Every structure is written in C-alpha cells, then in structure tokens.
From TrEMBL:
Annotated organism of origin: Stenotrophomonas maltophilia (strain K279a)
Name listed for the protein in its UniProt record: Uncharacterized protein
Amino acid sequence: MSGLVQYLTVKGVKISGPDDTPMDLGESFLTYLKGRDTTHPTVLSVETQRHYYGTFKKVVLALHEMDPRWKVIRIPPKPFAGLPRKSKPKELDRAAWANVMKAAVEECISTMDEVWPLLDRVHSALAQKKKGDAVSLSDPAEAIAQILANFDGHLPRQGAVHKLPGVGKISESEYFRLRRLAHPIGGDLIPFFLVLAMHSGFNEQPLRTLTLNGISEHYPLGQKRTVIKSSKRRAGSSAQGATQRAAFPASDHPLAPERLISFVIAWTKRIRDYAAGELANDFFLHAVSEGGRHKRRGMHIDSYSARTDDVTTRVTGYITLFCKRRGLKYSGSQANRLAFSEAVDGLTDGDAFELRAMLGHRLLSTGQDSYQTTTMQHRQKEQLAGAMTAQERWVTSNGKIDTRSARSDREQTAATQGFCCADPFQSPQPGQRHGKLCTSYGSCPACPLAAADPNEAYALARFLQLQELYEEARAELGSEIWRRKFENAYLALRDSWIPAVSTTANRQSAMMIMLTPLPGLE
C-alpha cells in the first residue's frame, strides 16, 4: 500500500468512505506511477510501477466485495499496455562486492581461529569461578571467565574491568579480545551473515530471522546435509509467508556453511540463557554493548530478527559500519543476492527454472525482472545467437544436422555425429561460407579440422554406424557420384579414425550404447 499512501499524501486526498472517493482515482494513481503527473513527478522502475498498481488493484477488488458503493473506484483496463515487462538490468559493482566479501571471509576465519579453540575452556572455567576473585590476564580464557563471574555473567565497559583486582592496566585491544571470547555483539556477526547469505542465496529478511529450529541435519543416501529454512514474510498467501530452504553438503572447507553455523551456535551458547522468550531461539543472537543504543547497564540481549523493536534496517546499519571501518565501498545484501543469481545463471547455463528454485521464487518472472544483471543478459544474448545459428544450420542442411536436442555431454560443433570441430565457422569444405556453421554432413572424416568425440566409445559406435551408411550410399548413389563425394571420407574413416579408437574396452562399451539413426547421405 506504500505507493497508494504516498500518492494520497502528496495529492492531499482524504478518503473516509465511498462518497469521498474521487471517480478518477484509478486513472490518476496510474498517471502518478508512470511519472506523468506534472505537479508531483516520480521516477519509478516498470517493476515498481507494476508492484504498486497490483497492490492497489487487490485492495480495490476487496472493497468492491465489501460494499458495492466502492465500485466508484474504477480499475483501468490494460494499464501497462506497450510497456516492457522487464526493468533495466541491475548493475553489480563487482569490485565493491568482492572487496567486502574478501574482508568478511578474512574476518570469519580470524574470529573462528581465535575464539573457537577457547570457548569450551571459558564455559568450564566460568562454572568454577567465584565472585570477587582476582583476575589474571595471562590466560585469556581464565581471565574472561573470572570477569564474567565477578559481574554475574555480564561484561561491563572497559573502565569497570580496569578496576578489578589483578587487572591493572588493560588496553583496548586486550579488552576487545576478551569481549569476543565472552560473546558477540551486533557487528561481530556481520561477516558470518554475509558469507551465509552468499552460500544460501537468501534474502536479508529470511536470513536475519533464521532460528535454531530452522537448522537441521539430514542424511540422504548416507551423506550428511545441513538444511536451513526460514519464512520469507512478503511471499506466499499466509501471514507466515513462504518457506525458503537451502541445503549444504558436509565439507571440511574452512568456510563451509556447516562450520559457520556450528561456530555461531557455540559462540552464542552462553548468552542464550539471558535471552527472553522466543529471542533465545534466534540464530543471529548477540549482546548489546553497555552504554550503547539502550543506555543501560547489565546484560542485554538482542538479535538480527528485530523482535524487540521492529527496526528492520539494523543489519544494513551493521554492514555499513563494517564497510566504513575498513574503508570499503558499501556492498550489502542486494549485491550478494545479485552475485548469487549470476553464479546460478552461469552454472546452469541460463536455466530460468533453476534460478527460480535457487532464489526461492514462486514465479519465473520475478527472477527475470528483479535479478537480471547486465552480465546475465549478455549471456542470454549469446545463447540466443547460438540457438539461432543452430536453427539456421538445421534448415540449410535439410534437417540432417540437428544439435538443438543433443545431450549436453555430446559434442555439437561438427556436422557429423561422433566428431568435434576445431572451427565450424571456417569450414574448408567445398561450398561452405566462412562465418556460417558448416553443413557438410558426412564429410568430417576427410576434414583437417575434425577430431574424434572425447568419449571414444561413443565415437567408435558412430564411426561404425557412419561406415555402414557410406556403404549403403554407394549402392544408392552409384560409384561415380559416391567416389566424388564420399570416397576420401570413407577411406579416412576406415583406415584412420576407426583403428584409432578401436580398443577392446571401447568396443565393449560401444556395444552397450543406444544410438539414434543417422540421416541418409545424399
């Protein structure tokens, strides 16, 4: 409703009932969305215009059902006729994104290396410490355990720690190291948030509201998988939204999602006892520094879920601070999502259905409208060009060369199956035009640009099939025509290509391959 509310506000329109409703509300709102209102011009993307108008339409239809008098509000037919469905492609600042992710990765590794080995010692030492004992800074685990015992589990400000017996002077770096052993604060979790966002492809909201209940382990076919699931609140028809899932295989990589998740759970374990109610179940749980935004003493716990104050932009603020402290240009959740989309698009060769599944979308159009970068569109144009040339080759070869439905693991460059070609656009065969895909079907064995398919068993099966085809063509075409067109290719196939791949193993494998018939030679 934000678009309609904004329109009513700037236009000064107040509606208390059907009788107060302007008859041209629908048309005026549409004019405003398209930026044609001269008194209050706006610049909105096509995607945003459609989104705002779609929400307006839903509200109006609901009002029509409630009371027929609301039908005074007309819904303009075909409001976006002639406009493209897609918005302009998004621009991913790769340099900024890469710098931020590099910093996040380095921070994750350094934090885990420094904190994780000492956590168990901190927890066990804390259970044995007595309030009031002196602090020895020589052992960080023992030191932080004693400080926490002296303050009932809470880590006070540096000035209060300085006054404890046995501490004496404590530098800011020493205090920071002890504080990280005690618990994370809001900004400490940002590197883990960014790396997990890249692993999962989640939007910011589902990831920041991830709970411990949403993390589980599964063992399909005996292989461990860590699964995370969370609700995307603005998706789906229910109040909870639509569930987003991501599964990660077990891995010993230092930045494997399973390892990041295990560390964050271990790091936040101690402070979960201080969290109230559902807050204790939030994954990105952290302490709030004393004297910070809450201006209070003692232990205070919050999380990225915004349960306590409904401030949903705090994670963005933490990311901004993370970048600012390192002198980096800001790159946040949206850039992560775009980079994830580009990676999926590249790995799946532009599969829109796979992109929809990986991004957790219900509609194909969402990914095509909102997650298209310039790189992805260039890749699509190249794929379209390839499909068009393959179609042209199929037509000009009278259907003999059809690579459109070939298996992805089969070579598709050569004009004859079983071969691959070094340059199908520069064929030396008679009658072929440079710059056009070669259509010289059946001539590959005698071509200097030809090579056998990398799968030698498949190549052998096709070679033997092609040899039979040559022999059949000799009877059909007559000796003179066949000699001019195919003799050189036939002899090369029989004397060179077949012996080169005709091993015992290849022959046994070739016998098991089911082949489609080859088109006849003309």
